[in-house]
Amino acid sequence: MTMELPKGYEPEDVEQRIYKLWEESGSFKADPASDAPPYAIVIPPPNVTGALHMGHALNNTIQDILIRYKRMDGFNTLWQPGTDHAGIATQNVVERQLAQENTDRHRIGREKFIERVWEWRKEYGGKIINQLKRLGCSCDWGRERFTMDQGLSKAVREVFVSLYEQGLVYRDDYITNWCPRCHTALADLEVEHRDVAGALHYVRYPLTDGSGSLTVATTRPETMLGDTAVAVNPEDERFKKFIGKEVRLPLTDRILPIIADEHVDPSFGTGALKITPAHDPNDFEIGLRHKLPSVKAFDQSGRMNENAGAYQGLDRFEARKRVIADLEAQGFLEKVEPYSHAVGHCYRCSTMIEPLQSLQWFVDVKPLAQKAIQAVRTGKTRIIPPTWEKVYYEWMENIRPWCVSRQIWWGHRIPAWYCDSCGKVIVSREDPEKCDCGGELRQETDVLDTWFSSGLWPFSTLGWPEETDFLKTFYPTSCLVTGFDILFFWVARMMMLGLWFRDEIPFSDVYIHALVRAEDGRKMSKSLGNVIDPLEVMDQYGTDAFRFTLAAFAAQGRDVKLSMKRIEGYRNFINKIWNSARFVLMNLEGVPEEVPEEYLSLADKWILSRLNSTAAQARETLDGYNFDRTASALYQFMWHEFCDWYIELAKPALYGKKGDKAQAAARWTVLTALKDSLKLLHPIIPFVTEEIWSRLPGAEGQIMMADYPKPDPVREDRESEQAMDLIQSVIVGIRNIRGEFNLPPTKPVKTIIFCPDRPTVGLLEANQSAIQDLAWVEEVKASLPGDKPKSAAAAVAGGVEIFIPLAGLIDLDQEAARLAKELDKVSGELAKVEKKLGNAGFLGKAPEDVVAKVKGQRQELSLKKEKLESNLTRVREMV
Question: What is the value of pTM for the model shown?
């Protein structure tokens, strides 16, 4: 491989080639026989129907950073990949295909439909895997799993049957969250609650004894067709006399009892509550306590059924309009008030949920939850950031039975069989042929909730229920990276099932990353038109720039506000790395393998010490999941310290202007610093670092297999760092004076520096050439304090006084006039901004980001004005 680099870095020419090299070399593979300490992450399995979005990009970038870091640090790493069969979502996709063919699943039958889903999965299901590879993910792709593959299906069946045998799986006629669009029950967590602007309808229920009526308030008047009682609080003095009486249900001839129940909130509505056990979870519980009949008024499509009388066949929302109109016409509607409340929607299709009583399979997860709670309380599993622990405990301590049956066809079919001859239910690991009574068996048509199979992911993907080498080596896993939105969908279920079936935590750490939002802080959505496509970003700016941006803003507990400008800025950083590496490679001829300590210059010692500190900081922040701090530390070192300072300081030595020893030392130092910098950066920006690494002399193998730098006490040199801090301060001070007085680099200036002591004088004299080269001065005179030169611009930096005599360089009168003119302009602009911020109307009506921007302008102009005033005073004093 040639040591030269092309003039510019072109990601599209590098990324595909490099990734192919990684895959073909087997660098991603885990080895269960290795003696190295294991480090494992299971990928949150993306839906087989999915495409890469910003959430995936952030989540998988973080995982890849951790895996690459640990792989370089000598760990036996496994990043276990795979996809989820996504029962409802995948079935919806294939059903839409069938609809385009003028057919549906019921016409072609279950067997043919399942075949069609597998065909779809074979053709389209690998899309997101290829996109993850495009992101640079270093998963062990040879171990890719699918929640419906044979091994995982065996694990699912084993868990279900075991829980059934333990009495924790049962079948019950219970209230569930029903999606009329997907035609299936949903778990509580699969329901998204959204605020809806509705209304409270106050309806009179006439007492059967003719003594008056009770008024109830309801947001869903159409459900009254399923009412079986009216309830009041037994302590509510207003209604005690009504308890035990009866009312007539308006629009029907049904008679309802008035019951007392402590659940009733006296402050809601009128204090009297209509009870519809078949269509409200709270009413269902009241119905159980009082042994009320349960009357369904809707069918599974959300249409009114035979119990709805004259409204049969109407859609539930059309029925609502008709019911309200009829109540008003017959004098039962007392009043209507606006009322906003949270309403459940299907997390897949966004259809409004209909609570519906139906026969379903449940898991009693209370015993499992207790183990999962203890694992976090005792610190066996850490949730990071810990602010999420409280939410975790609240949910787990109030956990309800988990409805695991879904009325769809794509998924793990529940291994239960029914005998119509004797009524027996058989739940079995193997398919039974006949019932013990000799009767024919029919299998349950429902499938298991998708989260049931993904809840086994940390151990089912490693071969359980078999005790495989991978299971023995890599379970429990080390870290789980996930979004907060599936903390309960997935994380809690993995905790419960892992502890129950393996008697071990599934992972030691759970790192919960934030959301990726639009630049203005709003959530990305198609309706707002602010969605950023990761693939388009990578096409435009390269994968490394995109990954570094995500890492740089991945602060714990703070959402990532993403903008194309930020990504463009980090693309410039990638180019900076490339260009610096290109310069280094052009100046390495004859680079030695080692150099004596005495050859090293102050700049050499300084950069090696700073590199040492940066390695320590990178390790500390990566181990603490502070990815933004890692990125910040590496950016600061690479751009500012290595590129902006060290390379510039080393150029004279590299060019041979300071002798052979200095040249050898500079070549060795610049190569050493570049190599270690690339290794530190590799987990975040793998492609460009691998490409540069492959051209470096003495760089063996792939960078991803190189050792991650460790702090070396020998390299720590605080004395050199302090000395270089002073020299840098002097150079910056001189540059600032040049900028303030419009002295271009081409104009030669002389500098006088007053130092507090002799050692400082000696230090500046020894590094005079560096100050001259980087501050563009022709003469540097360092001494102990003396008489201050006349007509000189001054600055204080690092404890020394810097003077640049301006006589002959500028016309002081002209400069005073220029500064006065600029000051008037800035003062005028500042006055306009102050006036705007003093306008109550502007502050009250303008968006927050606009107000913040104007406040920023005020601060900037104020600082500029202050600087101009200071400079003008100084110039006038010189005249």
Answer: 0.86
